[in-house]
Structures are given as structure tokens and as C-alpha cells.
């Protein structure tokens, strides 16, 4: 045994027999509804756990491990049951919770986790209501709050000079609350907005209804404030109505997992058809400010090294329906490190207290009564719960997803927004490509800026599409110029009238008869119509219907008069040509 101990010290590796295990609960979501899949984040969490346990300066004499992967399937009831089952077990006692995947599953657990004096660290739950510390006192997240989505969408609309958007909102608590925030941001920015509430259980019936896509109002820009399952059904109906690019654009959330349009079965649209309407669509993603891929982090890996190791582990799980790449992988990795750093801070504080050192923590008992070793923690120990919560609040480190620190509401700071586009790769599969990014702080509005090699023409191949609004073109005329034109047109009509009288009274004279009086009538009628069209061309009006009628009448009169006048002249020229180029000497009698 002594030899084993010395060997462990020599290799600087943790020895299993001397290490005390610290447990945390791990609740994920299976991707039902389009959230990050269990298989997608578990490799990142396992990697973080291994890296933490390899770090000899972190949680010495302890090994951090989860109690098992529990799948909430993004269901609030199931999430509560799994959490309470974990807490009710006599052993092991968990010191924290990482999860519970989607916002729907996280919300109910986040409200009660504080009663058990443990922190909950989420890597994907973005619902802004969690910022209420009176309800969610022990909830933290390594992803920014979705409160930035509203300003991000407004910034996106301003980037493309769009002033109208139609939103489809799922009739669910999380999406309803997001819609309320969107409406405030859109109203502030003077954006014309239409919203369609959809019940997941009545999707097909509502989507098939008349004017579901606001066809009567000619909307061209749509945002899907729904989960991916509902998004697939909406896009399928949109495909049948030919609401596709480049005349229409669809915007989705960027947290949909990879290949979300291929999930499940749809009796109407195939996966290839859905991919066709998704292609060239846009996706919005809130994400911490990223670091250089080669910059070393406090977790022992660079972002590039993490991505390499993560994808290697992901490949070993191929074939599992629950395994897909998720953008939340780096956030989940940093969530485990957040818990590890916090527990390490608590461990150091307990060690200092045992030596007689006095500490003062905001909101906690200054006497330090109730402090016990981490392995002796119980859910009833409020002092330990307060210290652990304080340690998470004070945690600050550089992770693979960027700088990790929390604001007073437990949300990730230094957030930004990314604009991505679905594009076909060389292998003919769709992938998300970053085209623009911005910084979003609270409810402040900031502007997107294109990344290198991206412009309006690269995002929209035929140019930025219209948002469907009617454009009003104002034409102004000089009053003096209008008077001159009207006077000349009136003088021309008078001249035509004089010529008409002359043609009628003198038509029997030989000279007039040779000019074909009947054809003269047609020429005078055509010229008169052209003169009359001038009055319609310059008619002033601010009414849309009047201007539309005026333009139509002007076009008809101008073309009719031109054809009558010059068509008749060409006919007379043709007859002259015939007379002078007729090879016979026979005479033709003029009958007109």
C-alpha cells in the first residue's frame, strides 16, 4: 500500500482510495422540443469532470462526480420528480445541481432548490424570470438571459431596414413571457408587429386556417417564437403555400439542436423539403463574448482543444438517437467548472475557519457556526448553503466559452448576440454560418456588424428582400410648370378642334379629299387623346386610390392616342408608297 501511495504521489494523480467523493446531480433534456440533447452535452460534462479531478490544485483530497445522467425530456413534472427523487435518497448527498436542460424543466426546480441549500447551475436555461432572486435565490446559469433576444431582433431588423415582422408564439409560459418582452422592444423601436398564438395540441388545425400567415397584410419576415417541433409543422405548411426564400425569410432561435428539421416524422413534408425552406433562413443566438480559440483558459484547455476533444467523444456515441452536437456543450463544460471552483472556495474557507480565522460573508452567519466539511453537508445546513451560494456568486474564471462571472441576478455577464444563417455545405448538408454579431447589454439596443467576408449580398443572394410594406413615392411639381403644360395642352386641344372643323367643312374640296378626311379624323382623335393624358399625368393628389387610378388612366390614354395618331400616319404613308411604286398604270379611286 505504501508503494501505491508513493507511486500516486510521483505521478501526481489522484488515488482512488484516499479521495472523498463529492456528488452533484445532473439533469439534462433529451431534445424533445428542440432543446439541447442529453447525448450532446454529456460528453462535455464528462470531460469537465475529468479535467477537474486531474487538477491537483483544485479540491485536493476530493473527487467530483455526478450521480448519473437523468433525462427530464424537457418536461416540468418529470424534472421535479427526478430532482425530488435524487434529494430523497439517503445517500449520496449532492452539493449542487447542473441542469435541468431546457427552461421549461428548469423553472420549477429552480424555485425549490434553495430550500435544500444547494445551487443550481444551468447551461441552457435562458428564461428571464429566473433573474427574480426572491423566487430563484440559488439559480445560476453560464448562458445569458433571454432578455437580450428582444433588442437583438430589433437590431437585426434595423440592419436590413425592416419595419414589419410577424411572430408565431407557442402558447406556453416561457414563450408567452418572451413575447411580452418582444412587444415592448418592438413598440419602443416603432416596429409594426403581428403575433399569432399557437397551441401545440391544435397546431395543424390552426396552421391550416385562412390567413394564418397574414397573407392579406403581405408580411415577408417571420420569427418563430416556438420550439423546434412546432417550428417544423409551421414551416411545412409555409412550404405548401410557397412562403420560401428569396421572397420570404424565416428567423429561428439559435438554440435549436443540430438537424432539428429532421427530427420526428411528418406525414406531409419530407426532411429534404423542410431543409429546402430552412436553407438561407436566419437564426439568433445569445452567447457570451468568445475568446481566441488558441488562448489558454483556467480550465486547462484552449477553446480549440476543447472542441477537438468534445467532437472525438461525440463520435464514439454515434448511432444513439439522443446524440447531437449542441452549441451549449462549452456552456455545460463551464457549468461543471463553476461548481468545482465554488466548492473549492468553500473548502478553503472551511480550512481557514478551522484554524481560527474569522470571515464575514454577506447574508451569512458571521460566527461560522454550522460550517462542516463538504462531505458532511446536509440539506438542512443553512449556513453551508449560504456559503456555497456566496462562493458561486464570487466565482470568476476564464472558461472555454469565455469569461465566466455572474451578475446580481445569477446570470452570465458579458453577453452578446450572434446572427447565423443556414447554408448548404460542400456535402449538401445544412450548417449554421456566423454572418454578424453584436453586443447586447440588458434592454439597450445595439447594432449588428458583419463579420469578415459577409455583406448584404452574401446573406441575400438577390439583394435584401422587402418586409412587405407599401412604399409611398411622393412626386412634386412646380406650379408654374404645371400651368405651362396645362396651357399648352389646352392650346393643342383648341388647335385640334379647329382642324376638325376645317376637315368637316372642306372635305369635298379636291385638295382636302386627297388627304383622306376619314384618316384625318383618326389622327386628330389620337392627338387629342395624347393632349388629354397630360392633365391626368400632372393631376395632384395625396390619395393612394386616386393616384393609382390616375396612373392607370394616363398609361391607357397615352398608348391609345399614340397608336391612333401614328398608326394612321403609317397607313397613309403605306398608301403613298403603293401609289408611287405600283408597276401597273391602272388608277385607283380614293374612297375615303
Task: Give me some keywords for this one.
592 residues, alpha/beta, Rossmann fold, 3 domains, eight-stranded mixed beta sheet, five-stranded parallel beta sheet, disordered N terminus
Shape: elongated
Instruction: Give the CATH H-level superfamily of the largest domain.
Output: Response regulator
Structural class computed from helices and strand pairing: alpha/beta
Poorly predicted regions? 1-17, 32-36
Percentage beta strand: 15-25%
Outline of the structure:
Helix content is 42%, strand content 15%.
SSE layout and pairings?
Blueprint: H1 2-11, E1 20-28, H2 38-54, E2 62-71, H3 76-88, E3 94-98, H4 103-112, E4 120-122, E5 139-141, H5 149-159, E6 164-170, H6 173-188, E7 192-198, H7 203-207, E8 221-225, H8 228-240, E9 249-253, H9 271-278, E10 282-288, H10 303-315, H11 329-354, H12 382-394, E11 397-399, E12 402-404, E13 415-424, E14 430-439, E15 449-450, H13 456-459, H14 479-505, H15 510-514, H16 517-537, H17 544-580
Parallel strand pairs: 1-2, 1-3, 3-4, 4-5, 6-7, 6-8, 8-9, 9-10
Antiparallel strand pairs: 10-13, 11-12, 13-14, 14-15
Helix pairs in contact: 2-10, 2-11, 3-4, 5-6, 8-9, 11-12, 14-16, 16-17
Structure write-up:
- With 592 residues, this protein is α/β, with parallel strands linked by helices.
- The chain folds into three domains: 228 residues, Response regulator (Rossmann fold); 189 residues, 3-Layer(aba) Sandwich (Rossmann fold); 102 residues.
- Helix content is 42%, strand content 15%.
- It has 17 helices and 15 strands.
- The strands form three sheets. It has an eight-stranded mixed sheet. Strands 2-1-3-4-5 form a five-stranded parallel sheet, sandwiched between helices.
- A hairpin with a 5-residue loop joins strand 13 and strand 14.
- Helix 5 crosses helix 6 and helix 11 crosses helix 12.
- The longest helix has 37 residues.
- The termini are far apart.
- The N terminus is likely disordered.
